Amino acid sequence: MAEVKFYLEKRKDKSTGEIIIKNVPIFLFYSFHGQRLQYYTNMRIDAQKWSDETMKVKKNYSEAGEYNRELTRLKAKVEELSDKAKVLNETPTLEYFRDNLNGRLLDLTDKKTIWEAYKDYLKSLAVSKTPKTVSNAKLNYKILENFSKSRRYKLTFENINQRFYDEYLDYCFNEKKYFNNYVGTNLKRLKAFLNWAHKNGYHKTVEFKKEEFKNTWENTEIIYLYYDEVMTLLNLKLEDKTLAEVRDMYCLGCFTGMRYSDIKGLKPENIQGDLIVNRTIKTKEPNIIPLNPHSRKIIKRHAKKHLPFCMPQHRGGEANQYLKKVMEKAKLTRSVQIIHFRGANRFEETQPLWQCATFHTSKKSFVTNFLERGGSLTTAMAITGNRSYKSAQRYFKIADTLRAKEMTKVFGGVSLVKKQRKS
């Protein structure tokens, strides 16, 4: 990247012919793509107080702190604008830099439609986010595109308003038959794009931030395996290599609370003594998970078989299909009630456990069994990297055994079986 530089203006006094050294303007210079930006910083300084070497005000003068902070800010702003143009694959202009430095709307985004802005957003995501995040954002783009065509709704930043919200929900619920949580997920993704676009000067609309423009979340039942079901799965004899590998990966999640992507990403260097030390793929946060006899045995069973990784490398979608086969073989047929909402309408269905289980249930199985067997919610959150105490508290609703233990500590024996009232 070209360097941002600061110089004092070199101008002669018309009356004396000498270079002016008092109250001299400070200019910013920046060369890019064969062009040269010269920008007045709105600051002046006496030449004796200026250092040509550091391109700053000398530290021993009273103006140094305030002036140098502003110079640092301007330098960072130019570098940020240059980086943004590179991400968007745009060629910046002199006007682009000047307008931004003067606080006007970004030239690069002028006259861009919401669809063009969304494509810029996807480019930006590709630089710093995971492929899964980019894929989800692309899916959301497609949903918006289909909505616009189906309802003949010309989408602009200005008409992302209450009418759009109502029309969008009607499309999702009544035409596409989506359930609340799926719609809520895509509204969340839409808001992420709109916030990015607002922050980067594509629009000034704030309608989407209003309370009425709310997500459609519903707390769903937590599907998980009881501890004895996990052990049944772990001890199941499987001749098929693929099914055995998928079973081991799922059980490792049940004993560590790790996401499937993090299990796939495990490398030998992440196993440090009795600890798994890694950085989660979804949140990029560092994490430390103590090994227990079950997780240690599973990792040891696969040692050096899948280098440079510790575990098999099955795709998530395929792995979920194999998992259902494994659970069916293990006769995990316990009935599970699944409740969905579409708008205000409630839908119920009952499925055998094996049919509705996915790899995501391994993490839920870990947290639930951890609590039921005496672990604390705080520790479970630390191990799984769950930062939301509110969402984590949901697990207490199903940890009946744990609640009974806590009640026993205080009042004595408690039975979870409801007694019939005598008539």
General description of the model:
- With 423 residues, the chain is of the alpha+beta class.
- The protein has three domains: 5-108, no CATH class; 111-209, DNA polymerase, domain 1 (Orthogonal Bundle); 227-411, Intergrase catalytic core (hpI Integrase, Chain A, Orthogonal Bundle), CATH 1.10.443.10.
- The chain has 16 helices and ten strands.
- It has a three-stranded antiparallel beta sheet.
- Helix 8 packs across helix 13 (360-372).
- The N and C termini lie far apart (84 Å).
- Residues 104-110 and 416-423 have low confidence and may be disordered.
Features:
3 domains; 423 residues; alpha+beta; three-stranded antiparallel sheet; hpI Integrase, Chain A; DNA polymerase, domain 1; elongated
Fold topology:
Blueprint (H helix, E strand, L loop, with lengths): L4 E4 L15 E9 L2 E11 L4 E2 L4 E2 L6 H24 L6 H8 L12 H15 L2 H21 L10 H14 L4 H20 L27 H8 L6 H16 L3 H6 L5 E2 L2 E5 L6 E5 L2 H9 L14 H14 L5 E8 L2 E8 H4 L3 H13 L4 H8 L4 H4 L7 H12 L12
Antiparallel strand pairs: 1-2, 2-3, 4-5, 6-7, 7-8, 9-10
Helix pairs in contact: 3-4, 4-6, 8-10, 8-11, 8-13, 13-14
Helix coverage percent of residues?
A: 40-55%
CATH topology grouping of the largest domain: hpI Integrase, Chain A
Helix-and-strand structural type: alpha+beta
**Based on the structure given, which CATH architecture of the largest domain is correct?**
Orthogonal Bundle
Counted up, domains total: 3
* Main sheet strand line-up: 1-2-3
Per DSSP, the total helix count is: 16
- Roughly how many Å is the radius of gyration? 30 Å
Estimate the mean pLDDT confidence: 88
Query: What is the N-to-C order of secondary-structure elements (H for helix, E for strand)?
Result: EEEEEHHHHHHHHHEEEHHEEHHHHH
Name the poorly predicted regions: 104-110, 416-423
